[in-house]
Design brief:
Elements: H1 37-40, H2 56-59, E1 77-80, E2 92-93, H3 95-100, E3 113-116, E4 126-127, H4 133-141, E5 145-146
Parallel strand pairs: 1-3, 2-4, 4-5
Length: 182
């Protein structure tokens, strides 16, 4: 059978790195080239060959410089009184009703909301959200009420500062072995 008539092989076996010359990938260097840092171990992605003082990470404006004074608090969504005119008379204004009457989108469900006093209010409403001073005057003038709602504060881990005695079973005690006489 001539060589050009032989069927072609579709797949080649995987090269087994570091298994000698017959494995198809190098001998003792296993495709890592000759000596040096890259031949011996993994080099971090940010490695530049310089100490930390001049490196890329130090030159990036992470939490120093531009972002240093930025607040990471979630700012509330703002709604003005002029937008509350869509609501029917004596409605309780809370996040659920604002989404129901399409004043806020459905995606706003997890965000805090605050009402500001831009515009006029002509109907009495019961408001269960934080309100600015100017909005408070206009709401009471229109005959509305402010309902105070207790908000859930995030749970804070309490650390015990006073020293408490451990139970007798976990306390370390002196051994009862007698000492040798001198």
């Amino acid at each position: 059978m001539p060589v050009n008539k032989l069927p072609k092989t579709k797949t080649k076996p995987k090269k087994r790195v570091g298994r000698g010359y017959g494995s198809g990938k190098g001998g003792h260097t296993s495709g890592r080239g000759a000596k040096g840092q890259k031949a011996r171990s993994k080099v971090p992605l940010y490695f530049e060959g310089t100490p930390m003082r001049k490196s890329l990470i130090r030159r990036m404006p992470m939490l120093r410089g531009k972002l240093k004074q930025k607040s990471f608090k979630i700012k509330p969504l703002i709604i003005n009184l002029k937008h509350l005119s869509r609501l029917p008379k004596n409605t309780t204004v809370d996040l659920k009703n604002l989404i129901k009457y399409q004043i806020l989108p459905k995606e706003a469900a997890g965000f805090p909301v605050k009402i500001l006093g831009d515009g006029n209010l002509d109907k009495p409403l019961k408001i269960a959200l934080p309100v600015s001073k100017n909005a408070l005057k206009k709401i009471t003038k229109a005959g509305g009420k402010i309902i105070t709602v207790k908000t859930k504060k995030p749970a804070v881990k309490k650390t015990v500062t006073s020293k408490t005695k451990k139970p007798a079973s976990t306390r370390k005690t002196k051994s009862t072995r007698s000492r040798p006489a001198k």
